[in-house]
Amino acid sequence: MKRWLTLLCWMFLVAPPAARAQLSIEITGAGANRIPIAVAPFVGEAALGEGLTAVVRADLERSGLFRLLEVPPMSPAPTEASAVGYPEWRSRLADALVLGSVSARPDGRFEARFRLFDVVKQQPLGGIAYTLSREQARATAHRIADFVYEKLTGEKGVFSTRIAYVVKRPPNRYELQIADADGAGAETALASLEPIISPAWSPDGRRLAYVSFEAKKPVVYVHSLTDGKRYAVAHFRGSNSAPAWSPDGKTLAVVLSVDGGSQMFFINADGSGPRRRVTTSSSIDTEPRFSPDAQWLYFTSDRGGSPQVYRMPVAGGEPQRVTFDGSYNVTPRLSPDGKTLAYVTRNAGRFQVALLDLGNRQVQIITDSEQDESPSFAPNGRMILLATVLGGRGVLAAVSSDGRIRQRLPYSGGDVREPAWGPYID
Amino acid sequence: MRATSRLTVLAILGAAGLAVLLAGCGTSPTQTQAPAAVEDRKPGADGGKPVETSPVKPIDVTGGPSGSALAPLKDPANILSKRSIYYDFDKFDVKDEFRGLVEAHAKYLRENPAARMLIQGNTDERGSREYNVGLGQRRSDGVKKMLVLLGARDNQVEAVSLGEEKPQDAGHNEAAWARNRRSDLLYAGEY
User: Fold this and answer.
1) CB-CB: which of A216, A257, A331 is closest to B191?
2) I need a surface site. Which of A35, A251, A278, B114 has the fewest CB within 10 A?
């Protein structure tokens, strides 16, 4: 099956990456039954500078689902067009094989081609050709890794998605950054001398809502990443915070103090129209999140005396308590399939990420440090990005939703916090 | 000596604050540091040495009455220069020791109808950032309610929350947390 696609348009055609302060990844554990795969060096990739192979390998390795095999130098070096010597690859214990090449085009751009092979069944599983500029090498490698991941695991890869997070640099500089899912290619969308919290991706991945304190109080903004334009979407008297997008991208749930206390409201994401009050209580109702089917609004409330997760119908109705164990359960985040709730629980003075299976009510605590916060599901639901503190400094970590694979994403400068994993972008 | 040196620091900060005011830059971010620094209670911050300051005679060239009206707010000898209210863990009510401070500001607001105040509620660093925005709001709302009960007009006072984002003390211990659970009172022109 041949599927040749030419990739012409890219979402984030942006300025060249500034300081190469990347998040790097450590695997501190790994799942069993990893798929042994060989990714041969893409022939001719030196023309692209850093090339493709290293990024493809790192992506697959980092997922925890693949075991990358050593590939010795071969002559002639095989490409996607070569006749595949299946027995030889099988003797290296590979279940799967990626071969590819890069060539220069007359227009100054490049063509990258690859093909994936099932070594056990001795058959090709497909391939793609991309047209790219030198600056798009890394993005292309993520696409290749996504293709391999999906073919071999049956679920969509997230290597091409982006993450948002906030970096605090001493003494008082805050940067809202956007990076590839592997932490590379970070770009600053907003820099401020006042705090920035709670970035939330619009469902189309083009905008971020967030809370900025630049007006000496919390105000909710919507920021378009492609053109750098933004507007204050909730700037009422008092505090404005905790934005959450409805799945159709038209509505934001926000928390306002304008009518007293901290209460949830719906507002139009384009800033038009009046605010619609969602809750009426004397408690703190905050951290709203829509369920993926848009039927439920999950939120944190201390109406029962301690902060717990509740949910109520988006259409209106009585809130129901969702979390029961412990005296501090906050920051509800739903998995993309809506079946699992991630939240932060206080456990003997430590803040950890817990998963609640909404079907069978089983709770699993999946982190084990002191100050874990802001869990955020990958769009395929397999990994959860979170903020933690390591050596007195804020860093990002990712943990698989079964708790078996853990990665830390150390950062070379500043305190990193408030991660949000962006959606698929097609 | 500690009291003396604190007064000196306050005098310097007061003069600096006034100088900034007179310079007329309304929104420099460094200004927000001033109210917090006024309440810095870290002992030995001056290295133990008494600091000599030449007294500063403020000159008001702004013309209007606002400059002189703000003067008592900056006078370290005046309770109106006290701008932070501290709270016990998980508490939101104004403790008795801060009642006089709130009453003085209520009186000031009553007597200066043009004055506008921003109350920023703050929490310590533990727990969810957004839930802490809610807790800080509960603190600033409580101060506002008290001010209004004491005669300030509702539209004179805006209560907001900075949650855990603007600690006065960057430490990670009980003493630091106690300094960070606070409401800060700022008058228009100071933030």
Assistant:
1) A216
2) B114
A390 Cβ under 8 Å from any chain B Cβ: no
**SS3 of residue B26 by DSSP:** coil
Neighbours of B43 (CB within 10 A): 9
How many Cβ atoms sit within 10 Å of the Cβ of residue A81?
12
More confident residue, A98 or A408: A98
Provide the total of helices (H) and of strands (E) in chain A, helices listed first.
3, 30
Q: Under 8 Å CB-to-CB from A367, ≥6 apart: which residues?
A: A352, A353, A386, A388, A397, A399
Q: What are the beta bridge partners of residue A231?
A: A222
State the smallest CA–CA distance between residue A166 and chain B in angstroms. Answer: 12
Question: What is the helix (H) or strand (E) element at residue B8, kind and residue range?
Answer: helix B2-23
Question: What does each C-alpha distance from B100 to A103, A277, B92 come to in angstroms?
Answer: 78, 37, 17
pLDDT band for position A28 (cuts 50, 70, 90): low
pLDDT band at residue B69 using 50, 70 and 90 as cut-offs: low
Rg (chain A; Cα; Å): 23
Q: Judge whether B31 is closer than 8 Å to chain A, CB to CB.
A: no
**Test the A interface: residue of B137, B141, B184 with most A CBs within 10 Å:** B137
List the single range of A3-7, A129-133, B153-157 with lowest mean pLDDT.
Answer: A3-7
| CB-closest option in A194, A197, A346 to B129 | A197
- The answer to whether the bond into A292 is cis (omega within 30° of 0) is no
> Cβ B137–A262 below 8 Å, yes or no?
yes
Smallest CA–CA separation between B33 and chain A, in Å?
11
Q: Give the chain A residue nearest B122 (alpha carbons).
A: A217
How much is the CA Rg of chain B, to the nearest whole Å? Answer: 17
3-state secondary structure B67-112: HHHHHHHHCCCCHHHCCEEECCCCCCCCCHHHHHHHHHHHHHHHHC
Give the sign of the dihedral formed by CA B43, CA B44, CA B46, CA B49. positive
Average per-residue pLDDT for chain A: 90
Chain B residues touching A286 at Cβ < 8 A: 130-131, 133-134
State the best of B83, B123, B129, B180 to mutate against chain A, taking most chain A CBs within 10 Å: B129
Over the stretch A345-360, which tens digit does the pLDDT of each residue have? 999 999 999 999 999 9
Q: CA-nearest residue of chain B to A171?
A: B170
Shortest Cα–Cα distance, B69 to chain A (Å) = 23
What does the pLDDT average to over B62-86?
Answer: 77
pTM: predicted TM-score of the whole model, two decimal places = 0.84
Chain B residues close to A374, C-beta within 8 Å: 129
Answer yes or no: do A238 and B191 touch at CB < 8 A: no
Reply yes or no on whether the pLDDT at B19 is more than 80. no
DSSP calls for A360-390:
T--EEE---SSB-EEEEE-TTSSEEEEEEEE
Tens of pLDDT along A135-190? 999 999 999 999 999 999 999 999 999 999 999 999 999 999 999 998 888 999 99
Give me the interface pTM, i.e. the ipTM: 0.91
